[in-house]
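Lab notebook: predicted structure, single chain.

Context: the supervisor wants predicted structures on file for every construct in the current expression panel, including those that have not yet been purified. This is the next one on the list. No modifications to the sequence; it matches the entry in the shared construct table.
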Amino acid sequence: MKNQLKTGIKGEHTMTVRIKDTASQYGSGLIDVFATPAMVGLMETTAQKSVQKFLPEGHITLGIEISVKHIKATPVGQKVTCFSELTHIDDRKLTFSLTAFDENDEIGSGTHQRFIVDKDKFLKKIKL
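Prediction complete. Output recorded below exactly as produced.
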């Protein structure tokens, strides 16, 4: 497998917090603020999109591990932006550094690992 990945690749993705993204909707809390699971999803999306164009045709990355701190609440209507950086490559395992900000402050940070797979082979393997 030949890819064009190198450490230092950066990503950025922004979303606006909607009711469906809140802790009360996810069931992870009881109030309408940006849910930790929604932040995790934003972080995974940012990392995935940052490297996809550098992969060989037919390959994708799958999230395999994430460790985050969610340090500040964000209300509905605010924009949240996540920044990722590819910090380590170990064959097909990629490690990212992540930071998320709302319109005022940093709201979370962490690390994330993704694994490169051949999409068709992976889908054939998991068919029941």
